[in-house]
Amino acid sequence: MHYLVEPGFLGSPSVRTALIVGTVVAVTSGVIGVFTVIRGQSFAGHSLSDVATTGGAGAFLAGIDQFWGFLVMGAAAALLMEGIGVQRRRGRDVATGVVLGGALGLAALFLYLGTLKTASTGASFTILFGSIFVVSPDTVPAVVAAGLIALAVIALLARPLLLTALSPDIARTRGVPVRAVGIAYLMALAVDVSLSAVAIGAVLSTALLIGPAATALRLVKSPVKAMAVAAAAGLAATWIGVLLAYDSYYWPPHGHGWPVSFFVVALVLAGYLATYARRPRRLLPRSPHEEAAECSPA
Amino acid sequence: MFTGLMANTWIAASVVAVIAGMTGYFAVLRGQTFAAHAIPNGAFAGAAGASLIGVNVIVGLAVVAVAGALGIGALGSKARHDVITALTLVLMLGLGAVFVSMSTQYAQETYSLLFGQVTGVSQGEVAPIAGLGLAAALAIGVAFRPLMLTSALPEVAEARGVSTRKVDLYFLLVMAVATSMTVPVVGALLMFSLMIGPAAAARSVTARPGVALALSVAIALAITWLSIALFYRTNWPLGFFVGTGGALFYLVGLGARRLAVPRSLTRS
Amino acid sequence: MTELLKLDGVGVRLGGRQILDDVRFEVRPGEFSGIIGPNGAGKTTLLRVILGLIPSAAGKITRPPTIGYVPQKLNIDPDVPLRARDVVSLGLDGHRIGFSFPSRKRRDLVEKALADVGAGDYASARVGELSGGQQQRVMVAHALISRPSLLLLDEPLANLDLAIEQEIVTVLAKLAREHEIAVMLSAHDMNPLINVMDRIIYVANGKVATGATDDVVTTEGLSELYGHHVDVLHVHGRVVVVAG
């Protein structure tokens, strides 16, 4: 019988790096994910993560840290999306799908050429499915800084973002530069997708963006609470995921750790499904009596 | 270029292209492009699992693809289950990652399942791919008229006793068959390009259903053949040529439409 | 009393087409005006040019410093975590950067705005889950809290059932009377508004006729506006415009 926490968990430097990166990623994704769902742009998040794959593969080919590849490609794609307006709902499925296919094709090429050059075959697996345990300690400051910048942008723009989500026309009449705010938000989203790609891999990064936010939407009604719940849910999934992945080195088959990303994604999905076990959500507004009763102790 | 293993490749890839062009045409027409994205991604786990326990990859693909098609059909692709579906898909990709991480030669395996590896088509795989292709083509041929009717005028179809739900499910199963044969050749991530790119390009050039279907198949064949030829010359991954080829044809189709139709008519 | 809003010979061209031509009218504080006309006549364009969302090609517009705007429809899914009170609070300072910090004063202002439109009961419900009429009230409260002197509403009565339609009109008429806010709303049917309108702004064929309802809505006047013959019929106290 094994311990719940296998020996040496907290002593390992790669575990500490993983926990720092995981924390930054979970909090940033929780907050930005709530805005993404409110603005109806989950699709943009998904597209950015596909394009980030190309960036990661390109960085591998160029021999630099994949985080920079994710970041540069994500930001470029966000600008392009804003330019051609694919983040809107109308007519986006086919066009973006096909263009994303092109980007993934390019990723395939970069990975192939990179493998020829360096003869290290593990890279494609790391880029696609992530490996939070092999994040280089040199990248950690950049990851933390990027997360903080993204959070700061969102904190500054929180009110205009919500107002624009409510109605772009109202926002415009109140003097909000709707387009500029939208671009700033997409940039923050691109940064977040890059962080998430470092932690759980480019093709899986949507899970941390959408899952905790969707869980929060089912549980609470106010935007601030939703952000807090989403960040907490993301943190729980990442930390437990890191722990389980560390423990899994001791599971059969021996010597093969299970990927962290699998645990994180599975926990995120489980958390979302667990919200269905709660009492069904009320569709009708509550009566004033109930409201008062609930508020009085606080 | 046309001998030995490459001959198998040409045959298998041509069958795949024809089926992808056909199913893609109906997927675009019916607005079921989401399924063309979801089923292959989910099937990746099946392929990886099968290769781990030493079963034929096509069998693994088929089992998960059919299960996925039934699942999407049960949930209803238009219902508000998008979060569950998206997370389930990502989980399937993650599960695939677990399976390949346990096998010994995992990097190569992941890579070819996701991005395709056409040289891997062996003599033994040509027969099942051709068989599945024939089955998918027959299935579409038999149900051609109900498929058209429910795509174009769902209410009329219902009124005439054709169940849109049943036709939807039927078509999803055809997609599952197409997935099982396409993924080994072009990969899970790029199957969408081969299915949707040609169909979308064909649709923007012509409005006539028969012509569009034929054109979609022709474009899919052209992309595939060109990709194999270029692959043979450069040894670059097939997925690269298929992915960029799909995007290129789609953009050319859009451009042709812009030129042919005055701007005032396309805006509304 | 001086006018709040003045349009002097305003024209709008969109995509090479003349949508509105030589529009002139003025609105005073506390006035209730209805922008009436058939679908596609240019009612929404008129609202948007008053708001400054689209430029005018000709003429001059004098606007009040703050205009409250209630769009026709909200595109908010039911599960979006924005309560009615959050929406109203955004009306206060949603255009500024940074978070807003909760305070007693803010809460009182929000409660009052919601109470003014009779939406106090569902202050803590998600807006996406509210019915069309409830959403309208919340959006009116959202506009009110910025203390506008002019309130514009785009088709607020569309898709509401008759009883709720009348309730909304009553709330708006009361706001105009008690808060001295000029209310302008667009509608394709003038009948729900006939008793409360101080002024009708009838839009047809890209042109505008304005004045008291009885002066504007006549067979002769509207026939000239439409450019072909129409009949204005009075049936059981209701007004019907039919092509003749």
Number of strands of chain A: 0
Strand content of chain B: under 5%
CATH architecture of chain B: Orthogonal Bundle
Task: Give the distance, in angstroms, between the N- and C-terminal Cα atoms of chain B.
Answer: 50 Å
Q: How many helical stretches of chain A?
A: 12
Condensed summary:
The complex is a heterotrimer of chains A (298), B (268) and C (244). Chain A has 298 residues and is an all-alpha fold.
General description of the model:
The complex is a heterotrimer of chains A (298), B (268) and C (244). Chain A is 73% helix and 0% strand. Chain A has 298 residues and is an all-alpha fold. Chain A has one domain (13-295): Orthogonal Bundle (ABC transporter involved in vitamin B12 uptake, BtuC). In chain A, α1 packs parallel to α6 (140-166), α1 runs antiparallel to α10 and α6 packs across α8 (178-200). The longest helix of chain A has 27 residues, at 140-166. Chain B is mainly alpha-helical and 268 residues long. Chain B has a single domain (4-266), classed as ABC transporter involved in vitamin B12 uptake, BtuC (Orthogonal Bundle), CATH 1.10.3470.10. In chain B, 84% of the residues lie in helices and 0% in strands. Chain B has 13 helices and no strands. Chain B has helices spanning 4-30, 33-53, 57-75, 82-102, 106-115, 123-142, 144-152, 154-159, 164-186, 191-205, 209-234, 238-260, 263-266. By secondary structure, chain C is α/β, with parallel strands linked by helices. Chain C is 31% helix and 28% strand. Chain C has 7 helices and 11 strands. In chain C, the strands form 3 sheets. Chain C has a 6-stranded mixed β-sheet, sandwiched between helices. In chain C, strands 2-1-4 form a 3-stranded antiparallel β-sheet, with helices on one face. In chain C, a hairpin with a 2-residue loop joins β10 and β11 (238-243). The radius of gyration of chain C is 19 Å and the shape is globular. Chain C starts with a strand and ends with a strand. The model of chain C has no long low-confidence stretch (mean pLDDT 89). At the A-B interface, α4, α5, α9 and α11 of A face α2, α4, α5, α10 and α12 of B.
Topology at a glance:
The complex is a heterotrimer of chains A (298), B (268) and C (244).
Chain A lengths: L12 H26 L3 H21 L3 H19 L8 H26 L4 H7 L10 H27 L1 H6 L4 H23 L5 H14 L3 H25 L12 H15 L13 H8 L3
Chain B lengths: L3 H27 L2 H21 L3 H19 L6 H21 L3 H10 L7 H20 L1 H9 L1 H6 L4 H23 L4 H15 L3 H26 L3 H23 L2 H4 L2
Chain C lengths: L4 E10 L2 E11 L4 E5 L6 H9 L6 E5 L4 E4 L13 H10 L10 H13 L15 H13 L5 E4 L8 H18 L2 E6 L11 E6 L2 E5 L1 H4 L2 H8 L3 E6 L2 E6 L1
Parallel strand pairs in C: 3-7, 3-8, 5-6, 6-7
Antiparallel strand pairs in C: 1-2, 1-4, 8-9, 10-11
Helix pairs in contact in C: 2-4, 3-4
